[in-house]
Amino acid sequence: MHLPDDEHIGNRIAVQRKRAGLTQRGLAQRIPYSYSLLRHVESGHKKASPELVDAVARALRVDTAALTGQPSEHPMRPDRVAALVRPIREALDLYDLPTDPRTATASPSDLIASADALCRDVREARLYQAAAGLPDLLTDLTASCHERPSTELWRAMASACRSAHDVTVKLGCHDLAVIALDRMGWAAEHAGDPLLGAIRQYKRALSYRSPDAEHGIGLRMVAYGHRLLEQARESTGKLAVAGQLHLGGAVLAARAGDRPAVEEQLARAAETAARTGEVGTVHWLSFGPSNVGAHEVFARLQLRQYDEALAAARAIRPPHGWAASRQAALLVDVARAELATGRNEAALTSLLKARRLAPQQTRFHPRVRETVLELLQSRRRSPDALTRLATWIGV
């Protein structure tokens, strides 16, 4: 009987064997077990005994934990991730506390400029740099917003909280990302800016795009974002945020398998983008035809419309200065579509391009891990470039 778990030990043995450049017969010659048994273990038709696992680990020169699935899937050690995000959590916790008189803050103009610079780091996927700069900026902005509040400072505070959300999401700290969005809502309310409130709803909604999430809740957040926009005056910024909300709706509808809703949301986003053109940045969002195309690629991918996803990717004409984080995310989605259509070499090339553009983001991206694992499993032997990529992301 075939074992149903795609992550069974035999599957991991196959991945590690291919990374070592061995065929099944080649590995069988190095262990005291037959080729036939190894083949059945890798396919999941027979269980791997502890003795076989130990023998394979010795032959492949890997830890047995790499075959039993015990190591963390995160490419960075948990203690290093915790050390990186702990100061961010502490800074976000200051929001309702009296200002520490010992806190020396920069001028409002310097703080606003620092928030913008931090946002640029996030957009260019410089995650470590952004994580390192966030605690002091959040602390100083919190003190300044309490002591000398202004709309501009509260907007900068919302920007920093949004950056904290984006960084912690990319590092896999989703509980802290939720807190960061709560603080963004607090700052947006003080700023009195409905665009900020709508953007927060968009970011909240995207947390419901995982396959097992209740997508309907995310769609309600998108709808609430549109209602918030009714309070804003007509502007290109309002159109851009509305278009981004439509893209969020398309992503959630795709995850739910609702094709008509996907088509409707993409069409509305495209119509809006035709009116705005490539806006660049509106409250740290980029919106325009290119971003519509990138979201269409993701949506088609979720609907298993792989050829359509690749066609949408080919139609994108990125604007000058398009964020590296956006370009790299698109390449990861393209790699998934290429893999699904049998273009394995092209998929590997796309992943390597994503790594060059945004190495920190690509290393932590869960779909990169999925694609690399499938590439390893689809080959008898792995090319050096794939092996190095697998080692780099911690597979």
Automatic annotation (TrEMBL):
A GO molecular function held by the record: DNA binding
Organism domain of life: Bacteria
All copies of domain HTH cro/C1-type, residue ranges: 13-67
Gene3D superfamilies registered for this protein in UniProt: lambda repressor-like DNA-binding domains, Tetratricopeptide repeat domain
Name of the featured protein: Transcriptional regulator
Natural source organism: Streptomyces carminius
